[in-house]
Automatic annotation (TrEMBL):
Function description: Required for morphogenesis under gluconeogenic growth conditions.
SUPFAM superfamilies in the cross-refs: CofD-like
Predominant location: cytoplasm
Annotated Pfam families: CofD
Name of the protein in question: Putative gluconeogenesis factor
Family: Belongs to the gluconeogenesis factor family.
Keywords: Cytoplasm
Annotated localization: Cytoplasm
KW Kinase (keyword) present: no
Lineage: Bacteria, Bacillati, Bacillota, Bacilli, Lactobacillales
Length: 332
């Protein structure tokens, strides 16, 4: 008689966002025995990514570069080379990250940023799947409460106005933006979907505003977790409470879909923040636990704070400890 052996499937976690917050969580999630998928925004038009977008029609590489590094096990020296940023006085190459140029080169070789990221993921021994949210570069639009509008991720916050809603369009044509290959499938098969941490209107919502991604997140049976930002952001979430963040997400998808919110309650020490470096941050996000409950959320509030180099970050290990609990509960 032969014995059958059954292998338990790894829990499937999909993390959606962009900016600096996403890699922190992914780095800590790596090596936890998860099947990780990162869905990364392609609406960034600032800095090195924005300059490359002007030269080559491709999804902006910056957030994809940081996510590749966060899920890679390559030696520190290789990581430093990939992340190297040319100096301001280098004129033609000023401020470009070498990894952005490599992604641009392979995108041109392969005719696709999506394919370039898959190839680099193999080269860099990435543990997980990395997909741009769309295979085409997108343009982010904001409509403000006073009826005026702004176009382009990098110009929205500069207006310092209250945002009513955002939406995305294709950079190249008038077609409706579509999710990249395998993104919808990953969302529908996930045990847990994690949004954030990251800029609400410019890193998280651009992904959700791709219609089939928004639809898939609502349709998915996964536990949906929002990691609320620690600080309010200039021109984006000024005066926001944690409940305001969730209200905005729910308003954009027209449905209460967030199940659990992770909220940091540890205080940032007075005078700690170096606002000359982190000039987009203002004050700590205020708490409105009743408001969160009205939005149908379970709240996990604890110390998620990490202080580093004059900046305020989520402590990846503490967040992932909590996510592991949620993953386990979701599977049970």
């Amino acid at each position: 008689m032969t014995m059958k052996t059954y292998r338990l499937k790894k829990p499937r976690v999909v993390v959606v966002g962009g900016g600096t917050g996403l890699p922190v969580i992914l780095k800590s999630l790596r090596n936890q025995g998860m099947d990780i998928t990162a869905v990364v925004t392609v609406a960034d038009d600032g800095g090195s990514s924005g300059e490359i977008r002007k030269s080559i029609t491709m999804a902006p590489p910056g957030d994809l570069r940081n996510v590749l590094v966060s899920l890679s096990d390559m030696p520190k020296l290789y990581e430093d080379i990939f992340q190297y940023r040319f100096k301001q006085e280098d004129h033609f190459l000023a401020n470009h990250a070498l990894g952005n140029l490599i992604i641009a080169a392979i995108s041109e070789m392969r005719g696709s940023t999506y394919d370039a990221v898959q190839l680099l993921a193999k080269m860099m021994h990435v543990d997980g799947h990395i997909y741009p949210s769309s295979e085409k570069p997108l343009i982010l639009h904001a409509v403000f409460q006073d009826g005026t509008t702004a176009i382009g991720e990098s110009s929205i916050a500069k207006e310092r106005k209250t945002i009513e809603h955002v939406y995305v369009t294709n950079q190249e044509n008038q077609e409706e933006p579509k999710a990249a290959r395998k993104v919808v499938k990953a969302i529908l098969e996930a045990d847990v979907i994690v949004l954030g941490p990251g800029s609400l209107f410019t890193s998280i919502l651009p992904n959700l505003m791709i219609h089939d991604i928004g639809q898939a997140i609502q349709a998915s049976q996964a536990e949906k977790v929002y990691i609320c930002n620690i600080m309010t952001q200039k021109g984006e979430t000024e005066h926001f409470t944690d409940a305001d963040h969730v209200r905005v997400l729910h308003r954009h998808l027209g449905h209460q879909f967030i199940d659990t919110v992770l909220v940091n309650i540890e205080k940032v020490p007075e005078g700690y923040m170096d606002f000359s470096i982190y000039d987009e941050y203002l004050v700590q996000v205020k708490h409105d636990f009743n408001g969160l409950r009205e939005e149908g959320c379970r709240v996990v509030s604890t110390d998620f704070l990490e202080l580093r180099n004059g900046g305020v970050f989520h402590d990846g290990e503490k967040v992932v400890d909590e996510l592991l609990r949620i993953v386990y509960e979701a599977r049970v």
